């Protein structure tokens, strides 16, 4: 019951009344008993109770607004991953020979999943854009702003990787369909020997998809199956081009935010250098101060020693007893004649 009251107070919604008054009475009594058991911790329970007996709990610190957007993007990516795995199985099954009825159903399912996955990437892109407007709002600290930009870059990178993987799968499936249709595959004109560059650069996929669209537009055939396959090729090629556009926009976002974070990191590094230099100066100053204190103590001891020597030299003269005058009646020693 305490959890229910906590949830209701957090959402700032009035608690729903039970249907029966007796149940409400017993629930309120039970809730008051649970809360009163914790009153020994020093809190005033009566002040924290609302009119219906619910505990009002203050929520001072709330997570940033972009935290919900981050969770939504991660959920979309997880859903895209599940649908992509299902689509891979359909692709592997669809390129095999089969009956026309089954192939039509498979093509419809493939088209539906492809559209949902592409729309999912568009939703991720929109949500990542929303984070930009949430960063640096009123009441936000510099730390939250930096954290928000890091989250934005991280999400954009995840969406980039997922869209690149899906785009390469679609491109490979498109090549298989073109091979089944008897079309020629255009040569790779990128000229890049780096496989990482070929996987991340969407230029080759865009060129291949545009070539497929051009060949599909010029193809004329009376065979319904061939025309259906060409329509499928056209939809896949358009989807690949859309994914490439999403990749480019996210890449621009990552580069821009990365440049800003590089400047922030540079300032942090410079501040660290200045702090270390100041620490060295403080260490040197502290050493000089300790040496000055020692010198003062030594000079004071020397002055005290000189003072004690002067006191010891002067003190016997003041305390010496004067000699008594000679007695005139005392016999004088005889003088020896020379």
UniProtKB/TrEMBL annotation:
Organism: Tuber magnatum (white Piedmont truffle)
Compartment(s) where it occurs, according to its Swiss-Prot or TrEMBL record: Golgi apparatus membrane
Domain of life (superkingdom): Eukaryota
GO biological process assignments: intracellular protein transport; vesicle docking; vesicle fusion
GO cellular component, one term: SNARE complex
UniProt entry keywords in alphabetical sequence: Coiled coil, Golgi apparatus, Membrane, Protein transport, Transmembrane, Transmembrane helix, Transport
Name of this protein: t-SNARE
Membrane topology per record: Single-pass type IV membrane protein
Residues annotated as domain T-SNARE coiled-coil homology: 223-285
GO molecular function: SNAP receptor activity; SNARE binding
